[in-house]
Amino acid sequence: MTETAIHTILEQRRQFLGFLKRRVGDAAEAEDILQAAYMRALRHEDRFEKDESVVAWFYRVLRNAVIDHYRRRSSEGKAMDAWGRELETAVHPSHEVQDEICGCIGSVLENLKPEYVEVIRAVDLGEQPLKEFAEKRGLSASNAGVRAHRARAALKKELVKTCGSCSEHGCLNCNCRR
Asked: What CATH number does the domain located at 93-168 have?
């Protein structure tokens, strides 16, 4: 691709962004897709036919990028929905077992982000269904699922840092030194 062709693509940025905004409905997503398409165009410049308009070729790159965007979004949504359904049917420990859970959790929770503490207390410790948690906070089921996953990962990391091997082996009656 010649320097002139690259310059032509960059001059058309506003039109390309408008094209993407109409198709994805979100300015930030459109910007992300455009930046990724610029990178894709540079990596695949060998597919550009010299007798073809560079603008027409780049619109084809953008259409493919939009299709990829929706495919990714669809597969992510399906995976998160499935994970949310799995969490809803998960077996929760009895109250006797919950009373025995590591005493470190309370102090470790204080080190996590407030939104992580909220989801752990509501869903994991409070036995609130994830779907209900999402609805009460105006979140999508997939967003709530991601938040729960990240919260659990952060909790695990903090427990390992605080309790060491005791937490790695799932000790329910932790006697670690805090």
From this structure: 1.10.10.10
The alpha carbon dihedral of 70, 76, 82, 87 has a sign of negative
Distance between CA 142 and CA 135 in Å, rounded? 11
Answer yes or no: pTM beyond 0.70: no
Rounded CA separation 57/144 (Å): 39
Helix axes 130-137, 54-88, angle to 10 degrees: 120
CA pair distance 139, 132, nearest whole angstrom: 10
* Residues of the chain above pLDDT 70, percent: 76
* Separation between Cα atoms, residue 172 and residue 169, nearest integer Å: 9
Q: For the domain 3-87, what is the CATH code?
A: 1.10.1740.10
The pLDDT tens digits of the residues spanning 117-173 come to 899 888 888 878 888 899 998 988 888 888 999 998 898 888 878 776 555 555 555
